[in-house]
Specification:
Layout (H helix, E strand, L loop, with lengths): L2 E5 L4 H13 L3 E8 L26 H14 L4 E8 L2 H11 L4 E5 L5 H7 L2 H8 L4 E4 L1
Parallel strand pairs: 1-2, 1-4, 2-3, 4-5
């Protein structure tokens, strides 16, 4: 049974990545929510812009995990799904989790940001793809 890691922040790119992992596979999927306690509203795990308005994230990532569980229920097709929350920065935490937990692949969402926005804000998906110890599927 393959073990697939899906970083999830509740953004549309992350939702597409999770749907892709659930629809295309029949194995164990781990949904990872990364919460940076120093960052407003947590961390963006996809390349979607981070929402920095409003209150600091009070739910500690629970709303992201509830959204992920809803998507899995709606989509179906996976034998074993679990949700995990970790503190840290997005790309490093995803790579570390993949290294430490014997996953076989990572499926990550991207908004396809280009140009100056990508240069200024970087790409979590690109960093994960370069640094992960396992194959990475990037879903647009």
């Amino acid at each position: 049974m393959d073990r697939v890691l899906v970083p999830f922040d509740g953004s549309p790119p992350a939702e597409r990545a999770l749907r892709h992992a659930v629809e295309d596979r029949e194995e164990r999927v781990t949904v990872l929510s990364v919460v940076d306690p120093l960052s407003p509203k947590g961390c963006a795990l996809s390349d979607a812009p981070l929402d920095v308005g409003g209150d600091l994230r009070a739910d500690g990532g629970d709303s992201d995990l509830h959204a992920a569980e809803r998507i899995v229920r709606e989509t179906g097709g996976v034998a074993d799904v679990r949700t995990v929350r970790r503190p840290g920065t997005p790309a490093a935490t995803v790579v570390d989790y993949a290294e430490d937990n014997d996953v076989d692949a990572v499926v990550v969402g991207t908004s396809g940001r280009t140009g100056l926005r990508r240069l200024l804000f970087g790409s979590v998906a690109e960093t994960v793809a370069r640094r992960a110890p396992v194959p990475v599927t990037v879903v647009k």
